[in-house]
Amino acid sequence: MRQRPSFPALIGLVLLFCVALAAAPLRAAPYAAMVMDARTGEVLHSRNADTRLHPASLTKMMTLYIAFEAIRLGEITLDTPVRISAQAAAEPPSELGLRAGSTIRFRYLIRAAAIRSANDAATAIGEAISGSEAAFARRMNRTARALGMTRTTFRNAHGLTEEGHLSTAHDMTILGRRLFYDYPQYYNIFSRREEDAGIATVRNTNRAFLDAYRGADGIKTGYTRAAGFNLVASAERGNVRILATVFGGRSAAWRNQRIMELLDMGFARAPANAQVRRPSLPAYTDDDGDGGNVGQAQLVSGLVTRSLRPLPRPGPSAPASAPPPELVAAIEEAVGAALTTAVATADPAPAPRPLAEPEPEPAPAEVAAAPAEVAPTPDAQGAAAPVATAAAAPAVPPVPRPATQAALAVPPRPADPPPVEVARAAEPEVVTRASSTGSRLFGVSLGAQPSHHAAERLLLRTALSEVGTFDQALRRVVQRGGGYEARFQGMTEDQAARACARLNARNIACEPFGPAS
C-alpha cells in the first residue's frame, strides 16, 4: 500500500516551488532597435524594428506633437488656462501632482509631459485639445497614419499599458524625426535638464543620457513592466544628426549604454555631408483611423466646398406720400410772414462778398461732425440698391422770396478790419537722441569656426532652435585671424543680452557685442 505524502511535506514542496519561481529571472520584454540618418530618413540599422510592442511613455511624443500642432492651427495657445478633470488628476505616477478642479496654463502641461513624463499632464493635454481622452486617442491614431506610422495604435495619451496600445521602433523613430523637423521651435524642450511647470520644478528623466553623450539633445524615455526600458534619442555632431530607438531595455543603465552604442554606429555609417530631405507637414483624410470622425479635432484642408447664397436684401422702402396741399399752403404763408418780420426788424446787413471769392475750408470739428455719404450697395442680383433714409423729406417747391426783401437798400460794405492773428497752440517739439540700448547696432557672436560653411551651419541651426530670439536678426560670417566668426547682427542691446542668456543656459557659447566691435 502506497503511503500518501504528509501535509507538512506538501507544504514544503509548495514553498520550494515558490522560492525557485522567485529566484528565476523575470522574462525580459522583447528587444527592438532602429538607427536612422535624420537628414535623409535613411535606415542605418534595424532589429525587430517593425514588431508591435508596448511604447510606454514614448507615447507622449505623439501627445506633444499634437499639442504643437494645435498651437500652430490656433486651436489653443501656450497661455490658455486648462481646468483639470478628475480623470487627469487620478493618473498614477509619474505625475506633476495636478488636483481636480484646479487650473493651469497649457505651457506648464507641455513642460511636465516632455521633461518629467507626467501622466496627469499628458491626459490633461489630450482633454484640453479634444474634450476627452478617447477623442484625443482617435486624433493620435489619425495623426500617426498621416505621418506614416503604419503599425501604431494608441489608446491613451500617456502610454500606460492598455490592450491594443502598441507601436514599433520604426514608427517611433519616424515620430522623433517629425518632432525635430516639423516643430523645431519647440524641440529644445527635450534637452532641458529642469524647468518650471507652474506648481513644481520638473527634472528631465533623460538627463543621465543627455549628460553622458556628446551632442545629445533628446528625446524621450519610457518604462513600464510590460515594455521594459525604452528610449528615442537624437544627437548631432558637425553636419550629421542621428536618431536611435531602443525597446525592451533591461534597465535604465543598460538602455543608455545600448543607445550610445547605436548612435556611435550611426555616426560611423552616415556620410559626413548629405542633402537634407525635410518632410512636409501631414495631410489628413476625413476618417480618424478607427472608422469614425474625429469630432472637434477635425483637421481638414479648410477649402470651401459649398457657398451658401445670401438672402436677398429687402426692397426699397415705399416713397413717402406727398403732404396735402392745405399743409403746403400753410407752411408757405408762415414762412413768408416770418421773413417779412425778420427783414423789418433786422439791422443793416454787410454787403455780400464777391461771388468769385472761395469759401473757407471747414474746420476739423465740422468735418468730423458732417455725416458721411453712404455709397449704394449691390443687392443679391448685382444691381445697386437705393439707400433709403429713416426720415425722407417730401419734395416741397421753393417759396417765392418776399418783395420787401428785394426792395431793401444794401449799404456799402465797411472796410474789413485788420486780420487778428489767432495764437496757435504750440506744437510739441520732438527731441530725438541716440539710444544705446534701443538701436539695432548690437549682436551676438557664437565663436570662431574652422570654415565658412561650418559657421553658416551653426547660425542656421541656432536660428531654427531659437526662432523667437533671432527672427529679426541678420546672420553674418566674419573672417578673423584664420577663423570664421558666426554672428547675429541687427539687434538691440537688450535683445543681444537675452539671446546670450538663453544660449548659455543650453551650454552654447555666446558673447554679445556692441557697435564698436
Descriptive overview:
With 517 residues, this protein is α+β, with helices and mostly antiparallel strands. The chain contains 16 helices and 15 strands. It has a five-stranded antiparallel sheet with strand order 2-1-9-8-7, sandwiched between helices. Strands 13-14-12-15 form a four-stranded antiparallel sheet, with helices on one face. Helix 2 packs parallel to helix 5, helix 4 crosses helix 5 (119-130) and helix 5 (119-130) crosses helix 6.
Q: How many whole angstroms does the radius of gyration measure?
A: 39 Å
Q: How large is the count of helical segments?
A: 16
User: What is the rounded distance between the termini?
Assistant: 106 Å
Portion of residues within helices: 25-40%
Structural class: alpha+beta
For the sheet with most strands, the description reads:
5 strands, antiparallel
The portion of residues forming beta strands comes to 15-25%
Number of strands: 15
> Which residue ranges are poorly predicted, with pLDDT under 50 across at least 5 consecutive positions?
18-26, 288-304, 349-395, 403-411, 420-437
What would you call the shape? extended
Biggest sheet, strands in spatial order?
2-1-9-8-7
Arithmetic mean of pLDDT: 78
Structural features:
517 residues, 16% strand, five-stranded antiparallel beta sheet
Please give the structural blueprint.
Blueprint: H1 7-23, E1 32-37, E2 42-47, H2 59-72, E3 81-83, H3 86-89, E4 103-105, H4 106-116, H5 119-130, H6 133-147, H7 169-182, H8 184-187, E5 194-196, E6 201-203, H9 207-212, E7 216-224, E8 228-237, E9 240-249, H10 252-269, H11 325-345, H12 364-369, E10 377-378, E11 384-385, H13 403-406, E12 442-449, H14 452-465, H15 467-470, E13 474-480, E14 483-491, H16 493-505, E15 511-513
Helix pairs in contact: 2-5, 4-5, 5-6
